[in-house]
Amino acid sequence: MKQKMTLNEIREYGLQVLIKELGPAGLIRFLQQYETGYGDYSVDRHKLLKETTVEKLAEDIKKFKAK
Question: How far apart are CA 8 and CA 2, in angstroms?
Fold first, then answer.
């Protein structure tokens, strides 16, 4: 490993080490821990569930369980 590496070189080297030590599946699981996502979940949830009530959700759950 060089003393001075660019950020891209560090990223590449790090990925190589992780794949060697963890394997491809382990690398993916490791990287998934750092996925920050995007958007505002609270705002999105309120928009998505704007017309939904607790009673409606309970009814939908009962219908789903009856299947």
Answer: 13
- Look up the pTM and report it: 0.48
As a whole number of angstroms, the distance between CA 38 and CA 22 comes to 27
Q: How far apart are CA 26 and CA 19, in angstroms?
A: 7
| Cα 38 off chain centre by | 10
What phi and psi, each to the nearest 5 degrees, are found at residue 6?
-75, 165
| pLDDT per position as a tens digit, 21-51 | 999 999 999 998 887 778 888 999 899 888 8
